[in-house]
Amino acid sequence: MSVLEVRDLSKTFPIGGALRRQRVHAVEGVSFSLRPGTITALVGESGSGKSTVARLIARLYDPSSGAVLFEEDDVAQARRRKDVLHYRSQVQLIFQDPFGSLNPVKTVRHHIERPLRIHGIVPSQQIEGRVHELLQTVGLVPAGEVADKYPHELSGGQRQRVAIARALAVEPKVVLADEPTSMLDVSIRIGILNLMLKLKEERNIAFLYVTHDLASARYIADDILVMYAGQIVERGPAEQVLAEPLHPYTRLLLAAVHGERITERGSGGSAAVDPVAGCRFVSRCPLAIPVCSEITPELVEARPGQAARCHVTAPAT
Amino acid sequence: MTVLEAPAGTKTLLEVRGLEVEYGNVRAVDGVNLHIGTGEILGVAGESGCGKSTVANAIMQILRPPARIVGGSIVFQGEDLTGKSQEDLRRFRWRNVSMVFQSAMNALNPVMRVGDQFVDMMQAHERISKHRAIVRAGELLELVGMDKRRVRAYPHELSGGMRQRVIIAMALALSPELVILDEPTTALDVVVQREILQEVEALKRDLGFAVLFITHDLSLLLEFADRIAIMYAGEIVETAPSATLASAPLHPYTQGLLQSFPPLTGPRVRLSGIPGAPPDLRDMPSGCRFHPRCPHCLPENAALHLRQTSERPRLRETAAGHSVACHLVDA
After folding, report:
1. What is the ipTM of this complex?
2. DSSP β-ladder status, B227-232 and B316-319
3. Residue-level pLDDT at B267
4. Which partner from A248, A273, B101, B163 sits 20 to 30 angstroms from B73, CA to CA?
C-alpha cells in the first residue's frame, strides 16, 4: 500500500542560447512509490537528478511529463488553495543546508509555531505545548530553553533537528529529506539518521532519503533506488541491492566506497544533455555489448524485487 | 620527545612542535606536535573547527590576520619557517611544500588556458621558456591521468574532477618534498574521489614526496595514510599507524568517530555516533576537552571524574608509535 506514487516522471531544463538550444534531461521516466513506515533511499552522484526528483514531488518544479499521485490523487490536478495547502502539509521537504533553511532573525519557537498556525494544526492555546513536544521528539532538550534560541546559537546538527521538528509540526505522511546530513560533522550524522529511523517507526512516516552516501543508505533504508543520468538504473531492497548489485554503475559506486581499485576511465558529469538512444552508462561500462549503444534498456526485474536497466545483467525476456 | 617519531628508516622532513595559533583571542590550535618523514603519508582527521586546516595553513605560512602563530615552531628540513622573510617563504612555497585545497578547482583563472597557468606558476619560481613550460605542463597532466592536449583547455571545459587533477599536477610541478592535501576530494563524487586518491598514491610511490592529508573522512585515511593523527578542539588526542588506529583505537573520541561510519557489509546494527557537538572554541570545556561528550566521564566515578573535568590530559605514548591523550589510558 503506497502513500505516494511517482509515475513516469520526467523533467527537462533548457540550456544554451537561442541558436544552440539543448535540453538537459534531468529526470526521465522515473517511477516508484513510497510506503508508510519505510525509508526509500534515492542514491546517485551529483547531476544524476536525484534532488530534482525530490523537488518535483514537493512541487517546487512542475514536471515536463508524468505524474505524482498522493493517496491516489494526481497532485497536479489540485488547483484549489485548500487542496494545495493540504498536499504541502502532508509532504514535507528537509534541505541539505541547515544554515540557509532557517531565518536568522527568528527564534526556534517562531519556526515551529508558524506551520502550526498556518495549517491550523492545534488551537492557539495549545501551540506552546505542541512546540515543546516537537522539540523533545527531535531530541532538543530542555525544550523551553531551546525554543528561545536563535539559529546562530545552535550547532549544525541542532539546526537540522529544528528543520525536522518544523517538518513534523504539520503531521506529514511523507518526508523528503534531501541530503540532510551531508553538511553535518561526521560525529553527529548518525544522530540524525537514528532520528529518521525513530520517526519512521513511531509515526509511520514514509521517507524519501536523497543521498550520495551508499553506507548511510544501507544503514537506514528499506528500499533503494539508484539514479544515473536522470534514470533509475537499479531498484530493490536496500540490503539485497548493495550485497548483490545488478547494474554495473551500482557495482562501480560500491567498488569506490569499498576501497577497491577502480580502473574505469572517462568519469565525470552524469547529466544527460540531449541524450540519444542507448544506455546512458555505455561509455563507462566494462560490460558493454553492441546493443547497449543502440537501444535504451528498460528497467527489468531480474531477481524477485530487484530490477535493473541493463542489457547484460538484466536482459529483457 | 619520542612520541610521534616517524617510522624508522625515514628521515624527518617536517616537524611541528608545540604549535599554537590564535584567531584574535580564540585559540584554534593549542599545542600541536607532528612529524612527517620523507615519503610518508600522514593523515589528520577531525571535525569542522578542530583546527586541522589551521595547522596546514600555518605550515604553509599563509595564515591571515587575525590568525597568527603565537607559539611553537615549524621546522622543515632543519629550518624554522616561523622566522622566515616573505621572500624566502615565496620561494619555499610550491618548491618545497605545495598545497591543494578543497575548492582549489575553483581557483583556476577562468579566462586563461590551463597551460598558461602552469607557465605563470613555473616562471614565478624558475627561469624557463614558455615553450619548455608548456611541454612540462603537458607531461604533468599526463602524470595525473589526463590528456596532455588539455593544456589548451579553459577551466570551464573541464569537469570538477579534471580541474582538481590540474591543481594536483600544478602542486607537483616543482617536485616539492611535501604536498599538503586539505580535503582535496570532498567536493567530488565518490568514484572521482577514489580515482584521484589512487593517482596521488601511485605518484607518491614514483616521485617520493610526503603527503599531509587533512580530511574529516576518517575512512579515507584508514585506507590511504601510513599514520593518522586525530584532532579534537585544537589538539591532537590520538596518533597511531593506520592499522593500529582502526583495530585498537584508545581515545573515546576516536572510537566514537569510527562508530560514526555505517558499514557496507556485515549485519546492520544501530550505531550511536557521538552525543553532543564539538565545543565552542571561545568557551572550551575545563580539563579534558572531550569530557562533556565522553561516555566514560561519569560522576559516579568521583576521583576519575574530577581529574577528567579539571586536568588536561597530555599526549603520552602507550606503545611504539601509538600516543593518546586520555585519563582513562594509563601509560
Report:
1. 0.78
2. unpaired
3. 83
4. B101
Nearest CA in chain A to B256: A187
Sheet containing B235-241, strands listed edge to edge, beginning at the edge strand earlier in sequence: B97-100, B178-182, B210-215, B41-45, B227-232, B235-241, B322-324, B316-319
What residues in B contact A146, CB-CB < 8 Å?
Answer: none
pLDDT digits (tens, 9 = 90+) for A178-197: 999 888 888 888 989 999 99
Q: Classify residue A51 as left (phi > 0), alpha (psi -120 to 50) or beta.
A: alpha
* Residues A97-126, mean pLDDT to the nearest whole number: 90
A27/A48 Cα distance (integer angstroms) = 8
Cβ neighbors of A92 (< 8 A, separation 6 or more) are: A167, A168, A170, A172, A174, A175, A176
- Do the beta carbons of residue B303 and residue B317 sit within 8 Å? no
Instruction: For CA atoms B130, B132, B138, B139, give the dihedral sign.
Output: negative
Check CB contact under 8 Å for B260 and A186. Answer: yes
Find where cell 588506529 sits: B245
pLDDT tens-digit series, residues B300-327: 888 888 888 889 999 999 998 999 999 9
Closest Cα in chain B, distance from residue A108 (Å): 18
What cell does A82 get? 485548500
CA distance A257 to chain B (A): 7
